[in-house]
Amino acid sequence: MAEAEHTEILVIGAGIIGVTAALALQSEGHKVRLLDRAGVAAGTSVGNAGAFAYADVEPLATPGIIRKAPKWLLDPLGPLSLRPGYALQLTPWLLKFWRASRKDRYAAAVKAQSELMHLAQAAQERLITEVSGEPLMRREGQMQLYEGAASYRASLPSWELRRQHGVTFELFETPDAIAEIQPGVARRFTHAGYTPEWMNTVDPALWTRHVAEAFVARGGTIEITEIRALRPLGQGVEVETASGPLRAAKVVLAAGAWSHRIARTLGDRIPLDTERGYNTTFPTASFDLRTHLTFSDHGFVISRIGEGLRVGGAVELGGLELPPNYKRAEILVDKAATFLPGFETTGGTQWMGFRPSMPDSLPVISASPTSRDVIYAFGHGHLGLTQSAGTAQLVAALCAGRAPGIDLSPFRADRF
């Protein structure tokens, strides 16, 4: 590995956040090098649902969720579960999650999330144009499905919240209305909400690689190495890697679910943990999926990936070390076959990914409290792809020392 120049910016992490940030910094004239232990889109960016979910402004920590959580957490195959072997380790995170669900903190989180979503959506459209990425997009909307009037009525406050924050949607109250957008859904789903401006990529791995290729074509470099530690210098940062030390003017840490371990080498203790998500990808589509489907009461989605379908979701709080429980993926596929008659359940490939999650569902986008030359960009939960272009814009502003365009105090690394 060549020695980094002291004027160079090193971006750690070649998932969608890291590659998009690297391209944004490069576009402002910086010399940028991208470092990753495994390569471009080798982690969570390869297997997510491919959605740009700008309509999802509500955090997981909602008022009253603690009353519901015990029932969910004790169901090992439910939409939200806690692995028993991880419960003690997760306790500090859960306490912060509980505090984040208080009404005042929840309202502040919704406001911050909404502002980031609006910024990210505009930035994503600019990025698509910049890298000629429209062929990798699908603009087919998204439908959230509800079983019965009671479930639908319970969802109405969240739709009102979306309305207040500028999200366009339609509400359907009959199976026939649902079928006009998406034929073939079991008629047990009687109500739905449809967000027509929702967008997906044809494949999140392809999109991430496409952005990375644009970065390399413009002179950027990508190197495979393990990052062991960061050390602040009088000016700049030293990065200890498996291949030797590097020095750079600034470092952007965007290593997803592993970011807090690297941040700890600076002395920063950040309450990042992991929502483990499961999916199964089918190479061919046995069901004519016309829009991204969200089964709200069951915690999973179905999206088109390439010429096939991906069934995935759920939240398992289990950290980075415990082995996968692929029974969770099987349950989701079985439900898909029940909800979409004719869906073929054979031939799929199972996968588990680590969503890097903060207790308040807001990412960390800020300078390190220890070193102004280290910029943090991680903790986006299931919204990394969605918020990637907006995060890149904010990272570039932080590196340049200019006003970011939105209030970044809710995203500070030391907010807890």
TrEMBL record:
Segments crossing the lipid bilayer: none
Limits of the FAD dependent oxidoreductase domain: 9-398
SUPFAM superfamilies: FAD-linked reductases, C-terminal domain, FAD/NAD(P)-binding domain
Entries under InterPro entries matching the protein: FAD-dep_OxRdtase, FAD/NAD-bd_sf
Keyword set, alphabetical order: Oxidoreductase
Protein name as annotated: FAD-dependent oxidoreductase
